[in-house]
Design a protein that fits this description.
CATH architecture of the domain at 436-716: 3-Layer(aba) Sandwich
Number of strands: 40
Shape: globular
GO molecular function, one term: serine-type endopeptidase activity
Keywords: Glycoprotein, Hydrolase, Protease, Secreted, Serine protease, Signal
CATH topology of the domain at 436-716: Rossmann fold
Radius of gyration: 26 Å
Subcellular location: Secreted
Distance between the termini: 20 Å
CATH class of the domain at 436-716: Alpha Beta
Strand order of the largest sheet: 33-34-36-35-37-38-39-40
Largest sheet: 8 strands, mixed
Strand content: 25-35%
GO biological process, one term: proteolysis
Number of helices: 11
CATH superfamily of the domain at 436-716: Alpha/Beta hydrolase fold, catalytic domain
Family: Belongs to the peptidase S9C family.
Length: about 725
Amino acid sequence: MKSLYVCQLLFPLLVLGKFTPEDLLSAPRRGEAVPNRSGSHAVFHLSSYSFDTHSPSSSWNLLNLHNGDTTVLFSDPTVQEMVWLDDESLLYINGTNSDTKGGSELWIARRSRPGEGYKAASLPAYVSNLKTVSPSEKSVSFVVSALAYPNGTIYNSESAPKKLDTGLIYESLFVRHWDAYDKPEKSSLFSGVLSLDGDKFRLEKEIKNLVAGADGTIETPIAPFGGADDFDISPDGQTVAFVSKTPYLNPANHTQVLVYIVPFDGSSKPEPINLEGKDTSGDPLPKGAASFPKFSPNGDALAYLQMYINGYESDQNIVFVYRMDSSSITALWKPWDRSPGGLLWSGDGNTIYLTAESYGRVRVFEAHIDDDTPKEITAEGNIAAMHLLPSGDFLISRNSLTSSIGYFAFNPSSKRFKTLLLPTDVDLQLADLSKITVEDFSFDGAETKVHGFIVKPSDFDSSKKTRLAFLIHGGPQGAWTDSWSTRWNPVLFAEAGYITVAVNPTGSTGYGQAFTDAIQNQWGGLPYIDLAKSMEHLESTEEYNYIDFGKAVALGASYGGYMINYIQGMPLGKKFQALVCHDGSFASQNIYSTDELYFPQHEFNGTLWDDPENYSKWSPSAHIKNWGTPQFVIHNALDFRLPISEGLSVFHILQSLGIPSKFLTFPDENHWVLKPENGLVWHREVLEWINRWTEVRANRRTAKTAKAQTALKAQDKL
């Protein structure tokens, strides 16, 4: 029997462009800029990683909104989160506790005195997602999230009883979710009050669990991605609204989310406002996922987003407004064919601003409560966050394909952006990205026009042939947008010497709900046709003669990884010299090993036992006999969304067939590769693979020949 061995990762010399993986992963990463009350300054978080010292760094910074100057406020990594209390004061979480191991603290600082502050509260466990309101100058009402035992007691991992065994027993779902096994401790909300004592704020009494008295076991923020947008505090500090999955429904099979309201002091149990009933137009209330509860400025209304269909995570979000006095719920702008992801009230409470994907960009829309439909007010880039300033302008945090998050003042009347901080002006790693050309293009797809992006290298020369990197996005209900990414960045592939094409086929978001919905039970159908037609369009259009189609590669992750495995056995796969599959599925019949079962049950329009043919119909495993293109398979051990057995199956088959192939796994990563050192390996190995198969114009798919097998064995022995 052939011995098994672990092959050390080798990094051959790569011919890279000006923008390298090191640049991408070491460049500063900025969070949203949050303004103070007067709009004079904003606070933002900045983090970076050094591959020289192999260490991260982070800081909290002030941005002068008049001139764009920045000042470091704190460079201590224990400062976890920070919010404004007024124009001058800020409240922040210290992730350590000098008195309680495993605890945390709340500190107060002043913007005029960087690096200084005082402790206002000692908390018995680690907390996060800090939110505040100040009902008066003498008190601050705050809410944080923390893990809690089933009885509501806050959970401290350091003081918790230690088990002598590692067994985990389940009689209900989830067993594991995203990248962790489900535990009894759930995320809860805790409220507290800081009161002015002399010239300093102090914690009035112990923080109180606001969700412990609810009917059933509820969790908020909702795992695995929930955060501070899952709850809100009324302006008077008397009420908290939050979202949580419906407690009596199996969370793995249902997406229904309820919106709860609860007194800030926890004097009564949380009550759902949208469990049953009808809206003001007489339509039944929706049964899908709800999100983003936000109180109006005077606290008389609560806006939130909700989908109608239970079990469909990519249904259209509709804006609903709950009136606190009458308990009535009104659905707004139902005919609007976009799905908002965030909302913001105007100062007078008569207008709501929304962010939503639209034709490859996340834009801001505005609508008066009585308007028929929201109107687009921004058109450029990807709006990551927005805040209203007293002047009537917006403070916008925005990124794009050629820039990480920068800060802008946006005037809604003139539709003009004033630059406050532009990363390509201040970050050395991004300095040359302004030379990158990004183009929109469209073509006739399977049933309708399909949109995509073409990204050209900074040294692009139309008189020369340039290799092609064809990117396929995940989701499948997702989209390539004009936005920045440190994981799948089209610009990085462009600067490595490729024309980078990113298509949004059937199922993509931002092109109307019908286009998104059309992928149901069509995984290898309409989207595959769209992708094939995009290649046909590029090949047959004289405008794109600069693309060297003899040196084309295709890459995809998640659903994009599924599609890579699918086209491996289809005619489209023969157009590429090499393929890269990251965390993709191989056998659709195995998809019940995933965590969120509602996903395959919606995508394949039924269950595996009632509609098995729907699962086998588009399975890549049905076309193994047609495989032949060299393929790089990446699959991580902590990916519980698509278990590693899917990637191993693909690699085992490729190796058994003698097809040139490579496998990469990270035992400590999930569906994504998030750690900088691992990310560097990922990018280097991916670029090495696609460069290897596009350096020489040759038919690389003589994969089953003895020559290919000999070369593969020789490579393995290195």
